[in-house]
């Protein structure tokens, strides 16, 4: 379903409003593509890329990176996966369209408030993306159905990778 005109916008001071899609990016695990090594991130991009500067345009990616216990918040602006030498994009799971007119800085500020539980060695980027999605639902920026379908798609993609051998 397409958004209503003049709704669901991601604003940047230098750019006109554009409807914005939310997706979960899943990258191949490093050093080996095991389930727990698959990297996940939240992506916010224009619904109509022709309204932006090039194919990636104003794609904003928000995620946490680092080894267990030392995760840190990171933002990539104007991200283009075709030019990312650091990771192999496995899947882009479409979640939905934001229900709130917002700016990049508001998105970043909101998601910067998602707790990074470095005291929990099991906490990783996948856990953080789930918490970020639930916060977007809590704020009514996404529907419950969009969040659940997005998380299901993320989990399905993660499960496509091999399980790490025991021992």
UniProtKB/TrEMBL annotation:
Species of provenance: Macrophomina phaseolina (strain MS6) (Charcoal rot fungus)
Superkingdom of the organism of origin: Eukaryota
Protein name: Uncharacterized protein
């Amino acid at each position: 379903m397409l958004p209503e005109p003049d709704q669901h916008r991601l604003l940047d001071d230098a750019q006109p409003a554009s409807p914005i899609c939310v997706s979960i990016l899943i990258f191949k695990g490093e050093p080996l593509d095991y389930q727990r090594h698959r990297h996940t991130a939240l992506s916010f991009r224009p619904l109509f890329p022709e309204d932006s500067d090039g194919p990636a345009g104003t794609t904003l990616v928000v995620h946490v990176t680092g080894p267990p216990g030392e995760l840190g918040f990171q933002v990539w602006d104007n991200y283009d996966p075709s030019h990312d030498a650091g990771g192999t994009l496995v899947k882009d799971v479409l979640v939905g369209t934001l229900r709130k007119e917002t700016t990049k800085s508001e998105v970043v500020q909101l998601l910067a408030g998602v707790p990074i539980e470095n005291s929990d060695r099991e906490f990783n980027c996948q856990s953080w993306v789930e918490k970020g999605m639930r916060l977007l639902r809590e704020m009514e920026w996404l529907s419950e159905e969009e969040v659940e379908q997005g998380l299901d798609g993320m989990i399905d993609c993660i499960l496509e990778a091999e399980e790490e051998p025991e021992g």
